[in-house]
Write a structure and sequence with these properties.
By secondary structure, the chain is α/β, with parallel strands linked by helices. It contains eleven helices and 15 strands. The strands form six sheets. The chain has a four-stranded mixed β-sheet with strand order 13-14-12-15. The termini are far apart.
């Protein structure tokens, strides 16, 4: 009868063999084989080590990489660590310890665990984003974008957490609170460096036609880039002022029954002296400031809004007076910050109405 499988003995034997012989080392200058590049999302090296979600994704790329290698491909499958970020900063602030020491120790733990799992990484190409030899290239890329006019320093709405003392991404905000610590998060305007992606959006779209990605993935990228072709119209406000709207269906402008403005836009601030229900409008603005852009634009959430009394717009086609509302699904930093509503021709407008 065959002896039982002893993972501690068998797996360590082969892991030691792979490391000694650099079985998965990739010669990037070998052009005799077709190339295959598998890139995992680099983990943040926290103090608690790997969690169950890490090997779930890494197993899939490990299987694919091994299959491609057996099919004769020159496979590059590296691993690295996203070792910059809020967790490291907060640990340093609360403990008083320099991030350098504990970050390196956490990386050692992660590396040991990943090797124990037996993944086919080329460990000779390991990188850490906190290493000056790596992030100097991040800085170099930013400098080139700046010199070409793509990096700009502008006022823009951000997710600000006072307790953490930092700006958070949309993914780090859950129900108006920080994912780390559960502290209140509000939307406020701050100076930020941003990349002017619309300036080279056409190149991004053209590039999708040249890469060998699944069509579903490329379509997701097209949706994210968000190119729309239509008409931009100026809308006059009764007794002074105007704003712009963008529409892909200019033929429906006759059917406009109301306009919706962004609660975090500049226009509502300019109109506030003329608003007759200031307290109600300000309360809605304050409530919206607690939500992230993702929460505000979630198609599955219920619609909310607030009528802006004392101010009406003029339909640019038929000259009729049209009421104005605030709606949290309209973003001040996206498009013109105002949308037209035609309930007879748009399901979302109908639901909102």
């Amino acid at each position: 009868m065959a002896s039982s499988y002893n993972p501690k003995a068998i797996e360590k034997k082969w892991q030691d063999y792979w490391e000694e012989h650099q079985t998965f080392k990739t010669d990037v200058w070998d052009f005799s084989k077709p190339k295959f590049y598998a890139l995992d999302m680099f983990p943040y090296p926290s103090g608690v080590g790997l969690h169950a979600g890490h090997p779930e994704g890494y197993t899939a790329t490990d299987i694919t990489s091994r299959m491609k290698r057996m099919q004769g491909y020159n496979v590059l499958h590296p691993m690295g660590y996203d070792s910059f970020g809020l967790p490291a900063e907060q640990f340093a602030v609360t403990t008083g310890h320099n991030p350098n020491g504990f970050t390196e120790k956490n990386i050692e733990t992660f590396t040991k665990q990943l090797k124990q799992l037996g993944f086919d990484y080329d460990w000779t190409k390991q990188i850490e984003t906190s290493n000056p030899s790596f992030y100097k290239w991040t800085q170099w890329i930013f400098k080139q974008l700046y010199l070409d006019g793509y990096a700009k320093y502008i006022d823009m709405p951000v997710n600000w957490c006072e307790e953490l003392g930092t700006v958070l991404s949309n993914d780090e905000v859950i129900d108006g609170k920080s994912e780390r610590g559960g502290y209140p998060v509000v939307r406020k305007y701050m100076k930020q460096w941003v990349i002017d992606q619309p300036a080279f959006a056409e190149k991004l779209l053209e590039g999708l036609n040249q890469i060998d990605w699944p069509e579903s993935t490329k379509e997701m990228q097209r949706q994210w880039i968000g190119k729309s072709e239509g008409v931009e119209l100026d809308v006059n406000i009764k007794d002074g002022g105007k704003f712009s709207i963008f529409t892909t269906c200019i033929e429906t402008v006759y059917g406009i029954t109301f306009f919706v403005l962004a609660p975090d836009g500049d226009l509502i601030k300019e109109l506030m002296p003329r608003v007759t229900n200031k307290e109600e409008v300000q309360a809605y603005i304050d409530e919206t400031a607690k939500k992230s852009d993702m929460d505000r634009t979630d198609l599955n959430k219920g619609k909310s809004g607030c009528m802006v009394k004392g101010v009406v717009a003029i339909n640019p086609i038929n000259g009729k007076e049209v009421p104005i509302f605030l709606g949290d699904f309209v973003l001040g930093n996206y498009g013109t910050g105002a949308v037209m509503a035609v309930p007879a021709h748009d399901q979302r407008d109908f639901e909102y109405a």
